[in-house]
Model the fold of this input.
Amino acid sequence: MEWDIKLNNMDKKDNIFKRAIRYYKNLFMGIDGYLEEQMVIIAIHLGFHFLIYGIIVSIFGIYGRNLKLLFIIYSLILIGIKVVQSVKKYGIHAFLVADLVYGFKIKYISVYFEAFILVGLLVIFYFYLMKDNEDPIGLIFMGALVYKVSVSILKNYLGKVLLNRKIESLYNGEYEKIYINDSTFNNSIFLMDNLYSAMKNSIDAEYRSEKLKTELITGVSHDIKTPLTSIINYVDLVKRAKTEEKRNEYLDTLSYNAKRLKAMIVDLIEASKTGSGSIDLHMQVIELNELILQTYGQFDEDFEKNGLKLEYNSFKENIFIKLDADRLNRVFENIFSNIIKYSEKDSVVNLDITKDSDKLKISIKNKSRIKYGKDIKDLQERFIRASDADDIEGSGLGLYIAKASIELLNGEFQIRLEKDYFIVEIFFAIRVKK
Done:
């Protein structure tokens, strides 16, 4: 038992020793910044080591000259490790001198001149102290202090120059990549870049908004003009129809164009409301399968005309979820309408509802009869339609309204291509009661 206790105590001592070495190693490897700055801190570390070696020499009587040689080799190894570590991490920016040369511009010559004058005065002051001073330890400490202050002066003046360059580049609407190996200056540059990026995105968004408004006016004028002109013309034809058969034919066309005009106006209103978020949601518990199948019932006849077959698969017979039924109904109306317009005739449309941990997924897949470009996600924007869809009627608002509506319901709306298949995916977060 006694032996075990001694052994445990030895293990504890050993663990403390290992932890101390690990702590010191992490402390040394954590020295960061320009190498010129690091040298001061490394010198302090090496001074601490030299003190330990001196104690070892005095206690154990080890030959001092050999120890001194070992200490020099050891010091060079440590310095080499830090140089390699810094160069691997920062490249050329590991050296303050390199950044001073690289960042130099003639227009900032006065700033550099001021910095070098200050450093020069410090060096002269140090050599003046050396003249009549015979205290080597005091001179070493004073030299380290002068060196540290000189490096700080050069770094601060470099930061001043680089910040001015960054501000000028942003003022001129340009982007210049600026880097300085100092966290304070880098944070300032990072904030400037982000501010510039945010302002640029805001301006671009405003420009896109204005462009969309122009396109809206142009597109709406053209789209509404066509059915409206047709309605006016057919009203006149109905008035002058000589037979009942002709009158009914004109009335059918008139009814078709009136419905088309109504659908366009409804889409525009919906797009405006969903885009601004000015929609009152009426949340209620609904049965999802029933809502989808009821919505599909409105398009059942059109599906048959185009030879489309719906294959519906749900992981559960009854799925109760709290949503705005009218809003979700509108989403599926737009999706089914697009399927009828863009699907290849005599093909299968797959609608699957699955559950994965905390998400409910609704996937609708149809085989497309047109070819989409790489920018398929743009189809979710207002008035964007596929380049091969010029002969297909539509306002270019269906997917935009669907996406905006799903996001209003706190869901996710995604579209993607899989070979010739166009896939719409809708996700809702669900909470499972235990």
